[in-house]
## 1
Amino acid sequence: MVYFEVTDGLKHIISSSTIDKSLKQELVSASYISHESLLQFYLENQPTKSFFELIRKCKLYVGEYIPEECTRRKPKSKEYVEYMNHLRMEEKANEFDRLVNKRSEFQTLYDYSSKDSLTPSQEHKQVKSQITTIFNIFISVASVTYAIWYWTNSSMRLNDAYRVLLCLFFGLIVLVAEVFVYMSYLNKVEEAKIKERSKKETKKVVKSFE
């Protein structure tokens, strides 16, 4: 809401109007008046030719008054609180990493020396990823072993000893294949990191001022 300062000119207009004395005294003694009250005063009395001319008698009030709706805090959303907590945790992890690991005073754009050491949050993600991979490999081996065990009994009617050997054989094949695929993935990731580290920062003078 917009507020106007009750200047001497506006006080004179209010004092010479025909409004109630108590309301007149209240408006004159106040240091500011709202836009709605000023408009209502103009519509009821019309002391000037236009409302714009009445506003010209005033000044925009820029005092210490702050409307209540501006100071009322809005409730924070759940997503905002979770995001801020995530940022605080990352900042604490970075502070801990800066305290534990000493870094060079100057760093370039492609300086990856500080990225070799993982932060606690990154280590947690890495351990979680490894546990998930091990669990997935175990599920794959167990599924194949159970399928071979069921198939050798329902279709081939083999002896239990042969069934166990076949289950172990195919289980080992699946285990080796899963480990090979995972290690290949890690090697490709490591090669990509090494390739990225090998990049050098180049500077080129585009324009010089003399």
## 2
Amino acid sequence: MTHRPIPPASFAVDNSAGNGGSGGHSVDGNGGRDDDSGRDRDVDRAGDVDRDPDSNREDGRSERAKREPMTVRPLRDRRYVVETDGGTYVVALDSGSCSCPDHEIRGSRCKHLRRVAIEVTEGRLPAPDERIGVCAVCGVETFVPFAASGPRLCERHGFDRGDAVRDRETGKLLVVTHVTERRADEYRTDEGRPIDQYPTNAAYGAHEPVVEAVYAESLGPAHGIDDARRYGFPASRLVPVDVDREE
């Protein structure tokens, strides 16, 4: 006997087949079981098929992850602690595990795992390979590589190799070559003096990372930033420059 497949929930069942147009519901010939899954399916009066219970549970976890009150904090071992009204659990996002019963017993991707993933994706928490650091210039919290050491800079005060900058003290244009992990009171010049001991650096933080740069006037077609003499500056002494706008 050929069975007519039950259509997905978004389509109506053709009620005219196999029932003499009486308005009843046509089901397949195996006692209401679906051939593909072998699982009972409920058909409502409109002929729609109820969603898979497993799918409903997954959707429910996603919704609870978004709306239920939870407090999530990163731990020092790259895991996260999730505090809820029902208990406190530990999530390891990189391995996809949680200490809650829903995950440990049922093996489900629980609402706690989902909540941590949401907060990391939206930038409210550091990723497993990051930690919370503090910008040495403005003090704002920022995410830094987990194993990073030394002073760090936030996105607003950070620099990349090749950035054009201007020296606050002289007004001269420079090009960044490297942002070091050494503080201004640790970094020594060719003269053996710490950067922070120079009078022109007195107004800048000794705790700031040193940024190495070359003067733009020393560059040319045959003389790139790796060939020019490098100088060190406390990070806040240099100001980003929009070269195109200045020209």
